[in-house]
Amino acid sequence: MGLPAQVFILGLLTVFFVLMVVVASGKAIIWFANTFLHEIQPKIPDQPDDPPPEHKKKIAAITATVQHITGGQARGISIEKR
User: Domain extents for the chain?
Assistant: First the structure.
């Protein structure tokens, strides 16, 4: 077997070894993250008990507008005046 064939086989084995290391380290990182790092649940902000009666119509209009614009995909969490 000539030198070019040996270099070619050595290159293929090197690439194979490097890819195996990448795959194994990726699986190890995924396992570690799934085992020890738990997903943080978002905290729902405290909702006021009941808005004043004069604001109920405004809240209903804003909620209906958000529902209409987003096609029912979004939901308002809070409404604040800035």
Answer: 1-37, 51-82
